[in-house]
Specification:
The chain is an alpha/beta fold and 177 residues long. The protein has 5 helices and 6 strands, in the order H-E-E-E-H-H-E-H-E-E-H. Helices cover 43% and strands 19% of the residues. Strand 1 and strand 2 form a beta hairpin.
């Protein structure tokens, strides 16, 4: 089996969501969840104006670490050592309608196929979804909330996409010289 880098997975998934599933837009490394405290690996915007966050896990150790955090939250165990992930998933799973905090409508993990069974076991107690590194879905995510997308989120996504486009055009100019 060929091992993909995180960058290759991001490119595969962005292509999949834009061209395979007809989403409106997709970008990487965008600040989500109360503004900028968490950067999503991938953010996509669906035709019905729902935003999805996709967290990429290219190896079993990384996936197990985050699934352990989720298991602690779902089963009300004492907090684990990854404070940022614990806070993020506690908010996503326990307080999605919290005022002044916008979280994705849906959350997916993208992980290698061989990690599927263990991930599905932990994720079955959550609304989170699971897909492989090419976008094949093993568990469909459920909505975390029904709030509309705030205007500033759309503005940030457009700024992010414009910045990426600008940087790519500068690289093209440099390559021509």
């Amino acid at each position: 089996m060929i091992k993909l880098t995180a960058k290759e997975v991001k490119n595969n998934l962005i292509f999949h969501f834009l061209y395979g599933r007809g989403f409106l837009c997709a970008t990487t490394e965008m600040g989500v969840f109360d503004g900028y405290s968490v950067k999503a690996d991938i953010v996509v915007l669906s035709k019905n104006y729902k935003f999805y966050e996709i967290e990429i896990k290219t190896n079993l150790t990384d996936l197990k670490g985050e699934l352990k955090t989720i298991d602690y939250i779902v089963n009300n165990k004492p907090f684990d050592k990854n404070l940022a992930k614990h806070y993020k998933h506690t908010t996503y799973l326990k307080t999605p309608e919290k005022e002044n905090v916008f979280i994705p409508h849906r959350f997916y993990f993208s992980a290698p196929y061989e990690n599927k069974e263990e991930a599905l076991e932990i994720l079955k107690k959550t609304p989170y979804g699971l897909m492989d590194l090419h976008g094949n879905v093993y568990k469909v995510a459920k909505d975390l909330h029904k709030k509309p997308i705030p205007k500033n989120f759309v503005e940030n996504m457009l700024r992010r996409l414009s910045r990426v486009n600008y940087e790519l055009s500068k690289k093209d100019e440099m390559a021509i010289r």
